[in-house]
Amino acid sequence: MPVSRKLRKVLFATGIGHFVEWFDFGLYGTLAAFIGLHFFQAEDPALALLSSFAVFGAGFVMRPLGGLWFGSLGDRIGRRKVLTTVIILTSGATFLIGLLPTYSQVGLLATVLLVLVRLIQGFAAGGESAGATTFLAEYAPAHRRGYFTCWIDNFGFLAFVAASGLVLLLTTVLGEAAMNEWGWRIPFLLAGPLGWIGLYLRTHLEDSPEFLALKRSNNTEAAPLYTAVTTERRALGFCIGFVVIKAVGHWMLQAFIPAYLTTELRFLTTQAYTITTFGLLAVAVMVPFMGYLSDRFGRRPLMLAGCVGFILLSWPAMGLMAQGDIVYALLAMLLLGICIAAFDGASCAAIAELFPTRIRFGSIAIAYNLAVAFFGGITPWFSTWLVIKSGNPLSPALFVMAAALITFLTVLRAKETAGLPLRRYVRHKKTRRGRPGK
Q1: How far apart are CA 340 and CA 396, in angstroms?
Q2: Exposure winner among 85, 87, 128, 421, fewest CB in 10 A?
């Protein structure tokens, strides 16, 4: 099979699987307002939403554990096998949410079951982004690695668009009363057939050429996580720093904003999902172009531009949303969307280029999921808490600006890696005699 055709097949199969994974995982954030009303006992919708976002964050707590488990497996037995496993777990758990009894039916048991299913989702998600990024980076040619790896985020945002668009469609067709009563279950139940599609595509792929080369030469790492922590601490630190604004930006746009528009700014449900659907679609469209630019001009300029954009535009964007006008709110989404698209266009390749092939999956899984668990997992909850405690609807912008500053300072210290070949082996430290250390 010609390389270009094979690469397109790999891109499509990996991307569709990633789409399914994040459609499943992101549905909870999209439907957080409905979940808050059905699984928690709270008279105030804002407090119910806060409880819902707390469980949303609980799923992220499991991501580092999933990253440890699946990352190690991915470096020892292969990327493809792990990616097929995580899609089974995530789709199955998401399907179960659509079948769970509510608080009014079984009381606290409903909340407990929701938390358990969300923990399974989080554990599985710990292997997805690291695996998909590793897989595509190891297939892509060096001079186009930014473009091909950024499609991971493109498919991820398209999944968010599909989730938001589906909720918008169902709310429009069924009405808010029916949607609140039983229609919210439909998107979760769709996870079953979608999961089978993603599973089929992934099982018909070969593993990455980089990993297969290591396997043929018997050079796979026996203890990849130990090796990563002992030899690649600097790279792990850079990866965590890169992911801070990536995590906050993603989950601010996908999970916090839809609920924020309805509960705090009093937009109609259909208006809120219209704003987020078109805003996220614009991000998805922009990401591949930004990936192309990162191959031409480097990873650092695009990532720095995204961070600066968040620092300068987050407060004005939240101010536009607070005007209560749908056009202004959509413009605000686009302003924030340009920032995350610029960053995402370069970040996947930059992260993959930090680590050698022998430990790439596990290293990304550790660092990526630690950053996402803390910064991404708390984003909806902490943003909602800031609004409640401060009484200022613009206060979540301060959190985004702080996250962008952390990543900005990290990128400033990083080296440019665009166009360089991927590292395959670990660079061990040398002793005083110049020999490799043990």
Answers
A1: 16
A2: 421
